[in-house]
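User: Could you go from structure to sequence for me? I need the amino acid at each position, not a summary. Structure tokens:
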């Protein structure tokens, strides 16, 4: 999908799709292999601009939604790194990929991990991490404690519900991009495929054992992203009250 960028904005926003427009010129796909220091620097710069704009747009969306609910949204900070980074919640390494630290409100993205993903997956992952920040602002810690006190044996745990809720929040953001006319035909299907591709059953392979998942199955991630996208409302993302995920 492609986003038309107003004059003065040098970064294109991509929710789902394979191309985007910067100043009227279509950017290259992410999967270009850098072979020199200069090309690595150029690719890093391109990814940094893309990540920063996705983050800024997502946060502008949540700022608006919080204001409508009479709440104040506090911005998260973006940290881009390669290989490892110092963060309040520990070391972020290549194997870790993107993560959110509630102790310092930082979304950290490993460019080495990110460059292996297509643009749809990059935008989806960033929106998901901002979803964790939204959870933190809305008091997810207290929600988790209440849920664990009443959790029944065999039902999906709090961690899975947190991850699926973050997927739903990513869908809420995607809903606003559609209302602004930024989505092209077929983009939603691409988003749903991106959500499914990051499901725990796809990552682990072999026998599907939902009780061992920490991020939810492919079907669950797709379902909750779609719930957020279709309704565009925070209250459509209550994974903790849902009897079935």
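Assistant: Here is the amino acid at each position, in order:
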């Amino acid at each position: 999908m492609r986003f038309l960028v107003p004059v003065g904005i040098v970064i294109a926003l991509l929710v789902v799709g394979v191309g985007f427009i910067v100043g009227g010129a279509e950017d290259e796909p992410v999967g270009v292999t850098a072979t020199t220091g200069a090309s690595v620097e150029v690719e890093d710069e391109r990814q940094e601009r893309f990540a920063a704009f996705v983050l800024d747009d997502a946060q502008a969306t949540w700022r608006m939604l919080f204001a409508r609910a009479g709440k104040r949204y506090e911005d998260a900070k973006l940290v881009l790194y390669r290989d490892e980074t110092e963060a309040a919640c520990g070391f972020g390494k290549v194997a870790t990929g993107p993560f959110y630290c509630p102790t310092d409100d930082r979304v950290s993205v490993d460019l080495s991990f990110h460059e292996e993903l297509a643009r749809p997956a990059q935008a989806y992952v960033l929106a998901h991490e901002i979803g964790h920040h939204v959870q933190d602002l809305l008091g997810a810690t207290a929600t988790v404690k209440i849920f664990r006190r009443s959790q029944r044996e065999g039902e999906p745990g709090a961690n899975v519900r947190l991850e699926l809720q973050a997927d739903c929040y990513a869908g809420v953001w995607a809903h606003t991009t559609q209302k602004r006319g930024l989505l092209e035909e077929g983009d939603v299907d691409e988003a749903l495929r991106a959500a499914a591709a990051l499901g725990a059953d796809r990552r682990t392979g072999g026998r599907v054992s939902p009780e061992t998942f920490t991020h939810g199955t492919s079907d669950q991630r797709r379902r909750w992203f779609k719930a957020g996208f279709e309704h565009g409302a925070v209250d459509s993302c209550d994974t903790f009250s849902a009897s079935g995920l």
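One structural detail worth keeping in mind: The helical segments are 37-68, 111-114, 119-137, 140-150, 158-179, 187-197, 200-204, 218-231.
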